[in-house]
Request: fold
Amino acid sequence: MEGDRLLAVIGNSIITESDLQQQVGLYMRQNNIPQYNDKLITQIFQNMVAEKLMLAKGEQDSISATDEEIQKQLDYRIKSMIEQFGSEKNLEQEYGLTMAKIKDVLKDDIKNKIIVDKVKQNKFGSGIKVTSNEVKNFFQQYGDSLPKMPDTYELYQIAISPKLTEEDKQSAYLRAKDILDSIKAGADFSEMAMKYSEDSASAIRGGDLGKVKKGTFVKEFEDAAYLLKPGEVSNIVESQFGYHIIKLVSKSGDIIETKHILIKFPKSQSADFQAINELKDLRTKTLNGEKTFQQMVMLYSQDKTSLKDSGYVGKVLLSSLDSLQIMAVKDLKPGDISEPVRIGDQDNYSYTIFYVKDVILEHRLNLENDYKVIENYALNYKENKEMGEWLEDLKKSIYVDIKI
Reply:
C-alpha cells in the first residue's frame, strides 16, 4: 500500500491510498489487531465506499451535524481512549500524533458518522425489524451454519460501592480550595484546568465543556452555573463526581457555555476492604440460609439497574466477562455464590457477588432456548441485505467510479 493513488470517486468525494491506510491503521489500533490482511483491507474499503455514498446522499438532502453534536461525541471518544491507554501521553505515543491532531482526525470521523446516522434514520426510521416467521425461516435456511452458543451463565448480583470517608472528601476539598485560591489570586483558569482537572476529556481544552442546553449537567453543577454571570467563577461545588470549580463563559436563555476543573473523590484501600468484607459477610449469611439472595439484594445492593429486578443481571456469555469475573464464576454451579469481585473502571467501580441461577453449556442454537440470539442473527442478516440493496439504489443517482 504505497503512494497516494486514487482508489475511488463517489459523488464529490474521493478515496485515496492514504485515506485507506489511515482507516486500516485506526481500525487495527482500536481493535488490537497486530497485522492486517487482504480480507480486512477489502472490508474497510467497502465500508468507506458505503459511508461516502451515504454522505453524498446527506449532501443531496441538506443533512448536517451541529458543532454541539460533534463536540459532545468527541469529548466522549477522547475520554474513552484516554481511559483505554491510561494517559494522554500513552494515547499520543500509540497513535504517533499530538492530541490536537488526534482530535482533528476524530472530529471529521465523528461529523461523518453523525450525518450517516441521520441519513440512515431518514431511510429506515426507527430501524429494521423482523417478524417471528422471518426468524423461523432464517433459522431453517441458515441454522446449520450459525456458530455454537458459548457457555452462558444466568446471574443475579449484589453490588456495593466503597464508601467515601470524610477524610477522603476533605483531602479532595483542600486540593480544590488551593486551585480556587490560585485562580482568585490571578492564575489563568484554562491553564489551571489543563494542569489539575481530573476530567481528562475537558482538561485538554482548558476545562471547556462547550455550549449546552439546560438539563445536560447534574443538578448541583447546573444550579451553580446558572447563577453565575459571564466571566464569573463559582465557589467549590460538590456533585456525585467530586468537587467542581465552574467558570461561566456565556449564557443565552437556557444555553450556557462553561469551563470547569474537577477534583475527583479519592478511593481508599480501607474503603475497598470494607466493601469486600461486607459482601463476604452477606455471602456467608445467605449460604447459611439466614435470607435468600434476592432478599439480600433488596436490603443491600447499590446497583440501581439490577436492583429494579431483584438483582437480575441476565444470561451472560462467559466470554463477555472480564478476566476477574470469569475467574469468579467459571467453576460455579447453579445455586452457588461467587466470592467478591471488582467490576467497573478505575474511576467508577464497585464490588459484586454473583448468584448463579443457571449454567447453560456450549450447544447448537435452537429456537426453543435461543430465540433471542437467533433473532439478532436474523435481524443483522435483514439489515445487511436491505442496506446493500439501498446502497446499490443510491448508485443510480450518485456518481461512483471504483478504480481498483
About this structure: Residues 328 and 396 are 55 Å apart (CA to CA). The domain at 166-264 is CATH 3.10.50.40 (Chitinase A; domain 3). The mean pLDDT is 90. The chain is about 50% helix and 20% strand.
